[in-house]
Amino acid sequence: MIPLAVGEVLAELIRNDVVESSHVGHFVALDSDGSILFQKGDPTQLIYPRSSYKSILAAAMVRSGVVLEPRLLALTCASHSGLAMHQDGALEILALAGLDESALQNVKGKPLDEKAAIATAQPTRLAMNCSGKHAGMLMGCTTNAWPISNYLDIDHPVQVAFKRELESLSGEKISHIAIDGCGAPLFLISLLGLARAIRALTISTDPVHQSVVEACRAFPEMVAGPERMTSLFMKRFPGVFMKSGAESIMVASVPDGRSFAYKVNDGGMRPRLPLTVAGLKLLGIDADDELEQVYGGAQIVGSVRATF
Fold first, then answer.
1. The pLDDT of residue 48 is above 80
2. What CA–CA distances, in Å, run from 164 to 49, 73, 116, 282, 288?
3. What is an example of a Pfam family matching this protein (predicted)?
4. Domain coordinates in residue numbering, the chain
5. Binning pLDDT at 50, 70 and 90, where does residue 2 land?
6. Cα-Cα end-to-end distance for the chain
7. CATH class for domain 8-306?
8. Which pLDDT belongs to residue 132?
9. What is the mean pLDDT of the chain?
10. Measured CA distances, 267 to 47, 86, 203, 229 (Å)
11. pLDDT tens digits for 75-95?
C-alpha cells in the first residue's frame, strides 16, 4: 500500500482568535522557469489527480484527431455542474461522433448544481459531471475507428494515449493505475509531476496544448459552472487556467508558466477557497478579498485561512 504522508498544516479555521481546526496536506508552486517557488509538505507525494488533469486527456484526444470547437473542447476538460448547457454540449459531442447518450459508460449521477439536481428525478449518465470527458473519449474512438464498447479498459488506445500524454508532460512514468469515481482509469503521479504537467501544458507552443488551455480560458463556465469557484476565477482573472479534482485536489497556472498544485489530506472542500486564493497570490494574482467566513450566531467571528 502506498501511504499518504502527514504533510504540513495548509489551512486553519480561526474562531475568536483561536485555531479551532486545521487541514494538513501538500502544496507546491513552480516559478516560470520550472523551479520550485514554494512548498509545504512533500511535493513528491504520490496522489491520484482525479479530475484535475482532464485537460491532459483532452490534449491526447485532440492529438489523436478529435476536432471540436472551443466551447465543446472546454467541456471535455470539465467536471461540469450538469446544467442544460453542459448536458446539451455532451450530446453535441456525441452527435459529432455519430453516437448518443447510450454510448456513455460513466456512472450515473445527478447534477452538481443544487437547483438542477432538485429538478432531476433520476440520476443519468449525461447529468453526471464527467459526461463531457467521456463524450470526448468516445469521439476519439470514432475518429480513429477504435472500439467503443471497451473504451474504459486500461489498455484501450484512448487510455494509452492519455497515459502517454501525461508521461510526456510530467516527465514521470506511470507505475500504478486505479479506477476513478466515474469509472475511467486513473493514473498515480506525484504532486510535483502534476504541477509540472500543468506548467508544461500552459507554456507549450504545441497547437494541441494551446487549443485546450485557450478553450478553457475562453469558456470557463463549461469547465465547471457559472457559480463555481474555478470558473469564477478564470473569468475574473484573464490568463488563469484552473481545474479542481475530487478529494481536494487543485491545479492552476498563468501564461508565463508559474503554476501550483495541492492536495488536502482529508479530502474536504472547506479549505479550497483560501488555499486557492493563497496559491493565486503566489502566481501574482491578487484575490485577497476572498475568505471563507466563520460565524458565531449572526456575527463573523473568524475565517478559514491559508497558513502561507
1. yes
2. 16, 20, 36, 30, 38
3. Asparaginase_II
4. 8-306
5. confident
6. 31
7. alpha beta
8. 98
9. 97
10. 12, 26, 29, 17
11. 999 999 999 999 999 999 999
**Strand 185-187 relative to strand 177-179: parallel, antiparallel, unpaired?**
antiparallel
